[in-house]
Design goal:
Blueprint (H helix, E strand, L loop, with lengths): L1 H11 L4 H6 L12 H30 L19 H24 L6 H20 L5 H26 L31
Helix pairs in contact: 3-4, 3-5, 4-6, 5-6
Length: 195
């Protein structure tokens, strides 16, 4: 709100700062490069991805009666649709993609940044998988992860666009701005013949 007030003052003069202080919503204009914010957003997204994937896969393992293991998150052979454990892991990744799409709205907030952040946490997961089991050569691993990436990006961009296109209200009560000017006329007071 402070940046909006400064922009409003610069555009409309000194008395308009009170107006901008009452504005609700978010302005998406030119942004400064903020590396600390970007790193924080990446850490939040990466930890959310790991937490959600681990949580969903643990729940799925308990439901199907498979042993719960963190190492399965990074094993290429577990992502398949050939058996119940592979399907459980694949659906856990897809459920994680839906949750991450919602996280993008609150952490990243911008539709144009969704692909960057989703690709980043999937890339780090890929690197961890390479360390644990080697390069994933199974086509099913790539298909399942690409599908999860696609779901998170497209749904995340859609949700972020909904947030970006919300109206910005200009007053504290009901979004209506009241003017105290004696020159302001109501629409019903305007005679079309006078125009």
């Amino acid at each position: 709100a402070r940046q909006g007030a400064e922009d409003c003052r610069a555009t409309f003069g000194e008395g308009s700062g009170r107006l901008a202080a009452k504005m609700e919503g978010k302005f998406y204009g030119a942004e400064k490069f903020q590396p600390r914010l970007i790193v924080t957003q990446m850490v939040v997204m990466q930890s959310s991805f790991a937490f959600c994937l681990a949580g969903f896969s643990a729940c799925a393992d308990l439901v199907i009666g498979a042993p719960v293991s963190v190492s399965q998150l990074f094993e290429v052979e577990t992502y398949t649709w050939d058996d119940s454990a592979g399907l459980a892991m694949s659906f856990s990744l897809l459920l994680t993609a839906f949750v991450m799409a919602l996280m993008l709205r609150y952490v990243v907030e911008r539709a144009k940044k969704c692909l960057d952040f989703v690709f980043t946490y999937h890339f780090f997961h890929f690197v961890a998988t390479c360390f644990v089991t080697g390069f994933p050569s199974a086509g099913k691993w790539w298909v399942i992860h690409f599908l999860a990436l696609l779901v998170a990006v497209l749904l995340g961009e859609y949700i972020c666009m909904l947030g970006e296109t919300q109206d910005i209200s200009l007053g504290a009560k009901g979004g209506k701005l009241k003017s105290k000017s004696k020159f302001t006329k109501k629409t019903s007071d305007v005679n079309l013949d006078d125009i």
